[in-house]
Amino acid sequence: MFRYTFQKGENMLRELDLNNFKEETKKGVKLIEFYTSWCGYCKKQQSELNEMDKIWIGQIDADNNEELAAEYGVSVFPTFLILKDGRELERFSGLRKKEEIMQKIMKYL
After folding, report:
1. Does the global pTM surpass 0.85?
2. Domain span at 40
3. Which of 16, 39, 69, 105 is labelled catalytic?
4. pLDDT in tens, the chain (109 residues)
5. Given the DSSP bridges, would you call strands 56-61 and 12-16 parallel, antiparallel or unpaired?
6. What are the start-end ranges of the E strands in 4-96?
7. Structural domains of the chain, count
8. DSSP 8-state class, residue 80
9. Considering the domain boundaries, does residue 5 fall inside one?
10. What residues pair up with 81 in beta bridges, in sequence order?
11. Residue 34: partners with Cβ closer than 8 Å, 6 or more residues away
12. Catalytic annotation on 74?
């Protein structure tokens, strides 16, 4: 099974699922990525995310967490959500450069 790897010392990638999603996203600004193991763009996106030091990124395998994907209406991958204190502020989909993702996050910090 395809699984994201954690690289670079300061990177804050977290694998999320139904068991930890609410607790991990209830406070602060969080970037969430829904991905699938079969998604080529998701695999390419990972290299951009690995370079985003000091940014908390929650990753959800939508194949293994269909309930979360359905709850947020996610059917395109990768899909990103920006949450603040558990509430969705913004969403965007598709392969993105780290600079573009950072610009979106910075609006809410």
Report:
1. yes
2. 12-106
3. 39
4. 334 443 444 568 999 999 999 999 999 999 999 999 999 999 999 999 999 988 899 999 999 999 999 999 999 999 999 999 999 999 999 999 999 999 999 999 8
5. parallel
6. 12-16, 29-35, 56-61, 79-84, 87-93
7. 1
8. E
9. no
10. 32, 91
11. 60, 62, 68, 69, 72, 74, 77, 78, 79, 80, 81
12. no
* Known catalytic membership, residue 23: no
Encoded tokens for 95: 């392969």
Is residue 34 one of the residues assigned to a domain?
Answer: yes
Catalytic residue among 16, 32, 42, 101: 42
CATH code, 39: 3.40.30.10
Closest CA to 2 of 55, 51, 44: 44
Question: Residue 57 carries which side chain, given as an amino acid letter?
Answer: I
Residue 68, domain member (yes or no): yes
Structure tokens that stand for 19 in this block = 């068991």
Kindly state whether residue 38 falls inside one of the protein's structural domains: yes
Amino acid occupying residue 20: N
